[in-house]
């Protein structure tokens, strides 16, 4: 127990360091850009008519206060972390006067539900099928799955999304291709509401899973194939161990360890794919919110969504790291 506590404390320290470095890099990039969000917002606000110079100056001062760019660079940096600590990113200019945190809170459950479901399902299905394919290498069905996986794995997420839209939105229009639920639905959580959300999530989830499943399948098949040989299985069976137990209790459990590491390392890429997927399907998640904020020049919303993405991905990696010792207890001692 003490070894796990030390391991968890070490991983928590790494999580804090990664979040700190990631947010600082995002801060430097946002302040190094030649685009001044204050002047851009002033130009947008005054482009529809004549405005008095005093009103423009008052607007400029208010925007600088909202964006936290008043004072010296050190004061701006301290003010930035103070606002991060209380999750205060000011109001959104594209949805004024709604706070940025409110918009993110509305979009976050959609992204978390989509990513958590697709990532776990793709990882489980891909590893199970890949383990079976590596163990039963002569099986025609698993060999066929291998060919399909090798063809799908290099395909970008957005290509898969466009293909699904054409197939199930136009050629065979049986599924909705945009939005997170049917329009004009109330806030009550009845069966109709839940079914509508599930139907709208099928195509975005399928576009993410099609590519991910192929990658996990190929990785697990390779790991199991490298371990399992005919002599290995023969000796285990002669020792009285059932063939299914050889596969699930010994081979696949050991092969899952590097796959868990791969899952942690791929979360950033998966989130990037989700950003594109949400934009393609008009899914109301953080990814679509971030892209719309960039197009609208909503600096506060871009900053808030970027920070939340850094923290969210890092927290998911931390959770995987804490589960890791359950598969390989030797990790605690490292």
Write up this protein:
The protein is mostly helical and 334 residues long. It has a domain at 100-302: MetI-like fold, CATH 1.10.3720.10. Helices cover 77% and strands 0% of the residues. It has helices at residues 2-32, 37-45, 53-67, 73-85, 100-135, 140-152, 157-171, 191-227, 230-238, 243-281, 286-296, 299-327. Helix 6 crosses helix 8 (191-227), helix 8 (191-227) crosses helix 10 (243-281) and helix 10 (243-281) runs parallel beside helix 11. The longest helix is centred in the last third of the chain and has 39 residues, at 243-281. The two termini are 14 Å apart. 29% of the residues are buried.
Question: How do you describe this structure in short?
Answer:
The protein has 334 residues and is mainly alpha-helical. It is built from twelve helices and no strands. It has a domain at 100-302: MetI-like (MetI-like fold, Orthogonal Bundle).
Give the helix/strand layout.
Layout: H1 2-32, H2 37-45, H3 53-67, H4 73-85, H5 100-135, H6 140-152, H7 157-171, H8 191-227, H9 230-238, H10 243-281, H11 286-296, H12 299-327
Derived from helix and strand composition plus strand pairing, the structural class reads mainly alpha
Percent helix: over 70%
Give, in order, the helices and strands: HHHHHHHHHHHH
Beta-strand segment tally: 0
CATH superfamily of the domain at 100-302: MetI-like
Give the helix tally. 12
CATH architecture of the domain at 100-302: Orthogonal Bundle
Given as residue ranges, the uncertain stretches (5+ residues, pLDDT < 50) are none
């Amino acid at each position: 127990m003490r070894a796990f506590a030390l391991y968890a404390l070490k991983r928590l320290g790494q999580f804090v360091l990664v979040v700190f470095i990631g947010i600082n890099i995002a801060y430097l990039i946002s302040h190094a850009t030649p685009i001044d969000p204050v002047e851009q917002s002033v130009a947008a606000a005054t482009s529809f008519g004549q405005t008095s110079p005093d009103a423009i100056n008052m607007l400029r001062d208010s925007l600088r206060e909202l964006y936290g760019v008043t004072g010296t660079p050190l004061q701006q940096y301290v003010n930035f972390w103070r606002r991060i600590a209380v999750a205060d990113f000011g109001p959104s200019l594209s949805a004024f006067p709604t706070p940025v945190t409110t918009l993110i809170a509305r979009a976050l459950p959609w992204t978390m539900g989509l990513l958590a479901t697709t990532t776990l399902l793709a990882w489980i299905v891909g590893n199970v099928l890949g383990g079976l394919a590596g163990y039963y290498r002569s099986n025609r069905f698993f060999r066929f799955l291998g060919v399909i996986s090798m063809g799908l794995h290099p395909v970008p997420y957005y290509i898969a999304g466009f293909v699904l839209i054409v197939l199930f939105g136009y050629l065979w229009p049986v599924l909705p291709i945009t939005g997170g639920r049917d329009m004009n639905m109330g806030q009550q959580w009845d069966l109709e509401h839940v079914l509508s959300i599930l139907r709208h999530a099928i195509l975005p989830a399928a576009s993410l899973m099609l590519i991910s499943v192929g990658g996990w399948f190929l990785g697990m098949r390779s790991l199991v194939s490298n371990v399992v040989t005919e002599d290995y299985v023969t000796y285990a069976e002669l020792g009285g161990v059932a063939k299914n137990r050889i596969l699930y209790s010994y081979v696949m459990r050991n092969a899952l360890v590097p796959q868990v590491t791969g899952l942690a390392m791929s979360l950033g890429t998966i989130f990037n794919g989700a950003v594109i997927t949400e934009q393609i399907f008009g899914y109301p998640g953080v990814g679509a919110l971030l892209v719309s904020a960039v197009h609208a020049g909503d600096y506060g919303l871009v900053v808030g969504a970027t920070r939340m993405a850094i923290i969210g991905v890092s927290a998911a990696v931390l959770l995987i790291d804490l589960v890791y010792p359950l598969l390989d207890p030797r990790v605690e001692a490292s």
